[in-house]
Every structure is written in C-alpha cells, then in structure tokens.
Amino acid sequence: MVKGISRQVIVVHAPDPKLFEQAIFILKDDAVGEGITDEALLREARCAIRGSDEKLGKKRHLYLYGAVWASGGALITGLIWLLTVLL
Predict the structure, then answer these.
(1) Which SS3 state, helix, strand or coil, does residue 6 take?
(2) Tens of pLDDT along 20-73?
(3) 9 Cβ partners below 8 Å, 6+ apart?
(4) How does 33-66 read in b/e, with b if 16+ C-beta sit within 10 Å?
(5) How many CB atoms lie within 10 A of CB 12?
(6) I want to staple 10 with a disulfide (CB 3.0 to 4.6 A). Which of 2, 25, 46, 68 is the partner?
C-alpha cells in the first residue's frame, strides 16, 4: 500500500465490454501543468487504446505471413524429395 502519493488518472470505459470494463491511464506529474485540456487528454487515451488494437492486427498478419512461407517451403522440400526418390 502506498501512502502520501496522489496521482491523477484518466479512466476510459470500453465501448464493447466483453473482456474489459475500463482502462486506467496514470498521468505524468507535469502533464496537466502544460496547458493540455481534459478533452485532449481523453482523446489521447482513446487513441492509445485504438492504436494497441491496430498493432495486434498487424502482429496476427505477420504470423500468418510466416506460416504461408513455411508451408510453401515444406511443400517444395517434399516435392524435391519425392522427385529424388522416384528418379
């Protein structure tokens, strides 16, 4: 338990709460003092949530890309082995 420290947070509720109810962002100490509005902070938090979803989609695409190349390599290797055995 932490005592004597106060932190400012932004709570963003999930648009589709199947897995997550809300996301909590902890602000830096000097973030509010720079004249940033509440709307700008909330917009940045929502952008961070959407950005992480896009990165997950790209990562899935890379796994699929690697699986296609690995399957192609295995197929070519199998065909070469089969031709070697038959000839």
Answers:
(1) coil
(2) 788 888 888 776 666 778 788 888 887 877 765 555 555 666 667 788 889 999
(3) 24, 25, 26, 27
(4) eeeeeeeebeeebeeeeeeeeeeeeeeeeeeeee
(5) 15
(6) 25
**Residues whose CB falls within 8 Å of the CB of residue 49, separated by 6 or more in sequence, listed in order:** 12, 23
Query: Tokens 């890379």 belong to which residue?
Result: 62
Query: How far is Cα 41 from Cα 39, in angstroms, rounded to an integer?
Result: 5
DSSP string, 12-37: EE-SSTTS-SEEEEEPPTTSGGGT--
SS3 11: strand
